Amino acid sequence: MSGRRKLIAGNWKMNGRHEDGVALATGLAEKLRGAGTVPFDLLVCPPATLIWPVAAAVTGSGVAVGGQDCHVKTSGAHTGDISPAMLTDAGCAYVIVGHSERRQDHKESDALIAAKAAAAHAAGLVAIICVGETKEQRQAGQAGAVVASQLAGSIPAGATATNTVIAYEPVWAIGTGLTATPADVAEIHALIRADLLKRLDSGAAVRILYGGSVKPDNAVELMAVPDVDGALVGGASLKVADFWGIASACL
Ligand code: 13P
After folding, report:
1. Ligand 1 atom closest to the CA of 237, numbered from 1
2. Which residue of 9, 40, 128, 205 is surrounded by the most CB atoms within 10 Å?
3. Which regions of the chain does DSSP assign to beta strands (E)?
């Protein structure tokens, strides 16, 4: 046993309207309540429009809520952005930063991601910092070097096992149905652990999630890989049965 409690996190991305978002959250809350004591934490990260009603729907159930991104500032003239303080106000305990879709779509740099994670920490949020190589980088044998460089640039001073989670999401495995093999996952997670041990006093206790086409039928295998401390799930987090099926791999 690693002593690290697994975290099963659902990233809903830009999906869901009020009715289905609340139904999904309510369904998960019922599952968790009905399961009694479980050896994992369950987290949902809805789109910003649904954070308030989802937080209300899961109150008291043990399901945690997170944002999918945040700004570095607390408030001000930043049209379209959401501050870490607003996320805590809405009921969030976590925020994802540096997802590859934001690195790509919004040209987010490692330095910006580190600043976002630091701002999240200052607001009392746990930052889930995402790293992962593209298909071209993997084919060129650069996966480990890319991840190491992203870690070096994206983890802020002040990161600890309490306020930081790392998510390894190979870009080529996201939404493609292609999953990294357990051996590939083990290799990169070991590299991340070694990096965290060097970088942080509490590096041994930081949770490292795997993300990229995690489904109920591959979750048992993936969750058994050393240094895999949970999953960051996209598509399969949008259905109660699928997401709960993944969480059940940790039972
Ligand atoms: P999929 O599970 O849909 O591959 O998405 C993974 C992801 O990007 C989670 O953040």
Report:
1. 2
2. 128
3. 6-11, 40-45, 64-67, 94-97, 126-131, 164-168, 207-211, 230-233
231, 209 Cβ separation under 8 angstroms = yes
Q: What is the pTM of this model?
A: 0.98
Active-site pick, 99, 101, 121, 189: 99
- Ligand 1 centroid distance, CA of 195 (Å): 24
Strand partners for 6: 40
Q: How far apart are the first and last CA of the chain?
A: 13
CATH number of the domain that 31 lies in? 3.20.20.70
User: Is 136 marked active-site?
Assistant: no
Quick check: is 34 in a domain?
Answer: yes
Tokens of 198: 């060097």
DSSP 79: T
Domain count, the chain: 1
Summarised one tens digit per residue, pLDDT across range 56-84 is 999 999 999 999 999 999 999 999 999 99
Could you tell me if 22 and 49 are in contact, meaning their C-beta atoms sit under 8 angstroms apart? no
Among candidate residues 71, 121, 169, 189, the one labeled active-site is 169
Q: Is residue 79 part of a domain?
A: yes
Q: Which residues contact 75 (CB under 8 A, 6 or more apart)?
A: 83, 85
Percentage of residues of the chain with pLDDT beyond 70: 100
Q: What is the dihedral of CA 207, 210, 211, 212, to 10 degrees?
A: 170
